[in-house]
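In this section we turn from sequence analysis to structure. A common task in structural bioinformatics is to predict how a protein folds when a small molecule is present, because the ligand can shape the pocket around it. The inputs are simple: the amino acid sequence and a SMILES string for the ligand, here pyridoxal-5'-phosphate. Study the lines below before reading on.
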Amino acid sequence: MSKSYVFCDGKIVDENEVTISIRSKAFNYGLGCFEGIRAYWNEDEKQLYGFRLKDHYTRLLQSAKTLNLNIPYSVDELSKFTVELLKKNQFKQTTYIRPVVFDGGTDINPTLSNAEPKLIIYCQPMGKFAGKNELSVCISSWRRLEDTMLPPRTKPTAAYLNSALASLEAKQAGYDEAMFLTADGHVCEGPGENIFIFKKGQLITPPPSDNILEGITRDLVMRLGREELGIEVVERSIARTELYASDEIFFSGTAMEVTPIVKVDNRIIGTGKQGELCKKIKELFFGLTTGKNPKYSEYCTPVYR
Ligand SMILES: Cc1ncc(COP(=O)(O)O)c(C=O)c1O
């Protein structure tokens, strides 16, 4: 395997040189937050494009601030480090980038002190995440964490235990993935994805007040629906049984991209195959992530110049 470089303590270093204490509060208590970003490879141009770097780093800084972990970098600096890191690793394929901000303290108290906030960034090649083109999901018996318990909009590392338990339950029951309800029973999101339903000509997605992460892909899907397809896009609470009566359902997310859901709780959705709207959104999405659509070029940061 070729050498892997990571960003740690303000510089790019060989991954083998990085160590984290077994006493780290990040390891013991999950005191941190993170981002997931993609860089898309354009084979015709032999170019790698960091996708919506500024939006992801804006969200990371907001997350870190919420957790009282203030790192001394701006959005522009973080975007620049990421481009340098991708270049150093010489990636020539679609890549996933994982920045993590965590409490570097090693004392036994599970407190967030801001005394030692740390940032690491690593990356790895990532093709299709779902492993399947069409998914079957079930409603999880685990409910999504509420904003009064743990802030869902910060991508806190600790919250992914909630996600992992839901995914485990779904997979053990033979489904591809789980879908969370909120504590009061509204459709919320997947373990690492937002949800859209298409019904009677409207594209509907739960609002931020239903404890979702305000996904960057979700934002793009809403824009594509409105601006490119001219359909009505609505943010409102969704009831569980509305899912069964939907014409189409799909997940959106950086890792999952746009992936259709064709079964929920063993009920077939629409025709039981990827719907026409999802197909169109996917075509638009993959047409712009690789820098091919000038209207959306501000989303794409070239790595090789
Ligand atoms: C819980 C959760 N919801 C939604 C998303 C989708 O967000 P984005 O499109 O910004 O990747 C993610 C992925 O980061 C997530 O972890």
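The chain has a mean pLDDT of 96. As an exercise, try to locate the residues that line the pyridoxal-5'-phosphate site and compare them with your own expectations.
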